[in-house]
Amino acid sequence: MLIRNSGAAGDRLVSASSPAAAKVELHVHINDNGVMRMRQVAGYDVPAKGNFELKPGGAHLMFMDIRRPFKEGEMVPVKLKFEKAGEVSAEFHVGRLGESTAPSVHHKP
Questions:
Q1: Which candidate, 109, 108, 76, 72, places its Cα nearest to that of 92?
Q2: Is the model's pLDDT at 22 over the cut of 90?
């Protein structure tokens, strides 16, 4: 997912939620002595008039305790909470791992 900030000020994604999961965490991959690990983070900075990308192997949303398995082709609703822009609704398309079609979220703080 590509988050685009068209505003004159930077913003920060601080949380996410979805009715499809008990909790959605913000995660990053880090290299820990040659071993790739995931770690939860407090937020992602989105620069003014810039972009921030969530993707496999990098910064991503981790859906915890999902209510039921996601099925290819369905849409999963998500609310993204930004420090300045507040809540922004988005939907994720469930595709195959490695699929290159990524949704975009536009916001202006």
A1: 76
A2: yes
